[in-house]
Design a protein that fits this description.
Belongs to the prokaryotic Ku family. The chain is α+β, with helices and mostly antiparallel strands. The protein has seven helices and eleven strands. A hairpin with a 2-residue loop joins strand 3 and strand 4.
C-alpha cells in the first residue's frame, strides 16, 4: 500500500545542520459527510455561477480577475501573474530561529498541524534534532514559505517524529478585551468556591480523543440510512431547560449534597483554620456551614 502523500518537501535547518524533510497533513475534514445542492423539483445537481452584480450577466472563468476595494465600489485589478510575482519566493527551507519552552505559545495562535518526518537521506540529523528537543523540553520556532505564504511554524517532538503547527499572525488573533468587557468585577468566596473546587476535583480525568464521538456525523449517517430504507427516525423529546434560581443550591446538588449540607473541606488544615476563625469571631456560637459569599472588588 502506498504511503501518504507529502503536502510539502524541503529542508529543516538548525545552526549549520540541515536535513531533508516532508510535511504530511495531520488533521483532515475529508472524511466528513458532504452534501450536494440539488434542484428540489428535478433532483438534479445545481452548479454555482458567477454573476455580474450590475448587468446580471454570467461571467466566464477567463473573465474573472482578483480585485482589491480601495473605495466604495472602486477596485484595483490584480492579474494572476502579478499576484504570483508578489508572493515571497520559497527556498524550501524551514529555518529554526529559536528554541522556546513548549508551554510559551498560547494555543490561540495555533492554526493547522502537520506531521514532519525525514525525507530519504538525513535521518540521523532529524533524530538528533528530535531527541535533543525532547531532552531539553523545548519547541522550535521556524519560518518558511508554505503554500505561497510566509508562515511561522511551531515544531514539537511528537511520537517518533515531529509535529509542525502553522501559527496565526498576531494581527489575525483578536484581542480578548471586547469579548470579556461585560464581565462583572466579582470575586467568589466561601462555600460556593469550595463546592466548585470539589466538583472539579471529582471530575478530573485524562484526555482521550477516541472517547469523543462526532454526534452530528453519526446522526446524519443514521438519517441517510433511514431514508434509503424508507423508514423514519423516532422524534426526539424536547429537552427541558433547568433554571436554578439559587446558584448555591445548584452547586450543592451537583456535588451530591443535601439542601443544608455544607461543602466538603479541602484539607484538614483548611478546616482547622476555618474553625479557628469562627471561634475567634463567636466563641460560644455553634459552628454552622460557611455561607455563600460574593464581594465586589475594586
Amino acid at each position: 500500500m502506498a504511503g501518504p502523500r507529502a503536502n510539502w518537501k524541503g529542508y529543516i535547518k538548525f545552526g549549520e545542520v540541515s536535513c531533508p524533510v516532508a510535511l504530511y497533513t495531520a488533521a483532515s475534514s475529508s472524511e466528513r459527510i458532504a452534501f450536494n445542492t440539488l434542484n428540489r423539483k428535478t433532483g438534479n445537481r445545481v452548479r454555482r455561477e458567477f454573476i455580474d452584480s450590475e448587468t446580471g450577466d454570467p461571467v466566464e472563468r477567463e473573465d474573472q480577475v482578483k480585485g482589491y476595494e480601495v473605495e466604495n465600489g472602486q477596485y484595483v485589478l490584480l492579474e494572476p501573474e502579478e499576484v504570483a510575482a508578489a508572493v515571497p519566493e520559497s527556498d524550501k527551507t524551514l529555518k529554526i530561529e529559536a528554541f522556546i519552552p513548549c508551554s510559551q505559545v498560547d494555543t490561540i495562535y495555533f492554526d493547522k498541524p502537520y506531521y514532519l518526518a525525514p525525507d530519504k537521506m538525513g535521518t540521523d540529523a532529524f533524530l538528533l534534532l528530535r531527541d535533543g528537543m525532547k531532552e531539553e523540553a523545548v519547541a522550535a520556532i521556524a519560518k518558511t514559505v508554505l503554500f505561497r505564504r510566509l508562515r511561522t511554524v511551531l515544531i514539537r517532538p511528537h511520537s517518533r517524529g515531529l509535529v509542525a503547527s502553522t501559527l496565526n499572525f498576531d494581527y489575525e488573533v483578536r484581542s480578548s478585551e471586547k469579548a470579556f468587557e461585560e464581565m462583572p468585577d466579582l470575586k467568589i468566596e466561601g462555600e460556593m468556591l469550595e463546592l466548585a473546587e470539589h466538583i472539579i476535583r471529582t471530575k478530573k480525568g485524562t484526555f482521550d480523543p477516541s472517547a469523543f464521538e462526532d454526534r452530528y456525523e453519526a446522526a446524519v449517517a443514521e438519517l441517510v440510512k433511514a431514508k434509503i430504507e424508507g423508514r423514519s427516525l423516532p422524534k426526539k423529546k424536547a429537552p427541558v431547560a433547568s433554571k436554578p434560581s439559587d446558584l448555591l443550591q445548584a452547586l450543592r446538588e451537583s456535588a451530591g449534597l443535601g439542601a443544608k449540607e455544607a461543602a466538603p473541606k479541602r484539607t484538614a488544615a483548611n478546616a482547622n483554620k476555618g474553625a479557628a476563625r469562627q471561634k475567634a469571631a463567636k466563641p460560644k456560637a455553634k459552628s454552622k456551614p460557611a455561607a455563600a459569599a460574593t464581594r465586589r472588588t475594586g
